[in-house]
Specification:
By secondary structure, the protein is of the alpha/beta class. It is built from eleven helices and 14 strands. Helix 1 crosses helix 6 and helix 3 packs parallel to helix 4. The radius of gyration is 19 Å and the shape is globular.
Length: 342
């Protein structure tokens, strides 16, 4: 990707959880000459070698081809999780906006496109063994998030067939956390009514142990390094990204110093559905259904072909995130600014 004068990289969704980590890493990369961050609102944050543009990928008038002109790579991270009660709105941003990004990258003859997919793109899979990148990517059809991630996998299949000259990389990370994203993720998934004790694990009397609730986590900075490595290595295709160990009630109860209590899946889902129906909880019961069915990820390909390894364990990731949640941490960008909880 790089040239004698260094490379120019454009990042969409540059002010969110992953975007801030990717932009920070690229601004420190000696092989990157400049970074152009695209976001709906220009932040006060000004890392080295970085310029900003206010661009909304959901808009049909967004000048994406102009923004991509002369770029050596586009990293597409823009995504909207809400409103979960209006999937047509998220579809316009996430699916139609992504298609605009792909078409603009082709029109501007950008040689490298790195797309933020997700573990959520995968079809239901096992919880007792990891799966590699060949596992089917049909998502869970009832949840907007997984449905949109899976649809874009099919879109990229067609894009790669039609544009074999563009090197396309798909990142499929587990759940991504960092201290600076605590406030953003609280708003997205927990909402403004999240009880204070949830930000202070020592006050939790017990931890619900829900059948099937076994997932993986990854520090956002570790995920961002995979994006950075993909720019500098001639790789194509999908890469799973996750840290060990997988997180379940047993692991989390030991971390939080509380006891797991078995809770039937139906009871948990009913409570989430009621809160979502009353607009007290942003995360939908359909997403809960999807999470219970997500497979565990085998990251061998990222280790061997990208030379990537996570620097933090999943337990360290969750510890940092909970501390950030207590402090109401948020980075100096509009999506990430924090408010204290409880």
């Amino acid at each position: 990707m790089s040239s004698a004068s260094g490379s120019r990289v454009v990042v969409t969704g540059a002010t969110g959880n992953v975007g801030t980590s990717v932009v920070r890493l690229l601004s420190e990369d000696p092989e990157v000459a400049s970074v152009r961050g695209l976001a709906r609102r220009i932040p006060d944050w000004s890392p080295p070698k970085t310029e900003w543009a206010a661009v909304d990928v959901s808009s049909e008038q967004a000048p994406l081809a102009d923004e991509f002109e002369g770029a050596d790579a586009v990293i597409h991270l823009a995504w909207a999780f809400q409103p979960t009660h209006d999937p047509a709105t998220t579809w316009r941003t996430n699916v139609l906006g992504s298609i605009r990004v792909y078409e603009a990258a082709a029109a501007a003859r950008v040689p490298v496109l790195v797309h933020a997919s997700s573990v959520g793109a995968y079809s239901p899979g096992p919880k007792d063994r990891p799966v590699d990148e060949s596992w089917p990517t049909h998502g869970w059809p009832d949840a907007a998030y997984t449905r949109e991630k899976a649809y874009l996998e099919r879109t990229l299949d067609t894009f790669e067939r039609d544009h074999p000259d563009i090197r396309v990389v798909r990142m499929r990370p587990a759940f991504l956390f960092k201290a600076e994203s605590a406030s953003e993720q609280r708003r997205i998934f927990g909402g403004r009514f999240l009880p204070g004790p949830l930000a202070r694990p020592e006050l939790l009397p017990f931890l619900p142990d829900i059948p099937g609730l076994r997932v993986q986590a990854l520090h956002t900075d570790d995920g961002a390094r995979a994006y950075q490595l993909a720019l500098h290595r001639e790789v194509r295709g999908a890469f799973n990204l996750a840290a060990d160990p997988p997180l379940d009630a047993k692991v989390l109860s030991e971390l939080l110093g509380t006891r797991p209590v078995r809770l039937p899946r139906v009871a948990a889902r009913s409570a989430i559905a009621a809160a979502w129906g009353l607009h007290l909880l942003p995360a939908s019961p359909h997403l809960f259904d999807a999470v219970l069915r997500l497979p565990l990820l085998d990251c061998t390909r990222a280790h061997t072909e990208l030379g990537w390894q996570p620097r933090r364990t999943a337990i360290e990731v969750i510890q940092e995130f909970l501390e950030g949640l207590q402090r109401g941490e948020g980075a100096d960008t509009a999506p990430m600014r924090g408010r204290k909880v409880g």
